[in-house]
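DM between two lab members

TW: hey, do you still have the Pyruvate dehydrogenase complex repressor entry open?
JB: yeah, one sec
JB: this one, 198 aa:
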Amino acid sequence: MAAGRQARGRVEEVMRKLETAMLDGTWPAGARLPAERLLAGQYGVARNTVREATQRLAARGLLQSRQGAGVFVTEQLRTGFASPWRQLVADHPVLRDDILEFRRVLEGATAYFAAMRADAAFLHLHTSVIGMLREHITINGTGLRVQDEDASALLLLQHRTLCEAICARRPEEARTAMQTHIDFVRSRVEQPGEGASA
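TW: and the structure you got?
JB:
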């Protein structure tokens, strides 16, 4: 009985890791997953554990097994989360600033708590939310790079500062770094009606 629970727990843990990799962009839509034996070695589990986890995710429509070709990430996460954001912002450009304000509060708080307790469950929740906002982040990042050649370097520096604060478990510094980043983006994105979508 206990062994069965442990096996289920391992399958669910691998599922979470696979989902996180899909949400954070490690394996985008259309990507082929590594072979079962490689994933088993990476996660420290048996191959049948990986097989069951991928089968469950396939049953949910997140993965697709192609005979003789491997297991691939489907479009479901992208179409389920990202596209509505793109359409919403396209239909209502004034929402760009509202979304950035929302991100400033939400991502500042998540950076703070990530620095306090960077455990797997919190990371999964964080990447799920970021997955929903990824398209908005991508649109803004592209708009910034078009406007300002130095923006890429500045954005990289901001993300590095945030990462260092989280890894060093400095929550106040992490929150400030994230809020500074969002403020930078808000100050640089094009205003609605001025040209390219941001």
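TW: got it. The two ends are 54 Å apart (CA to CA). Helices lie at 2-23, 36-43, 47-59, 76-91, 95-116, 120-147, 151-167, 171-188.
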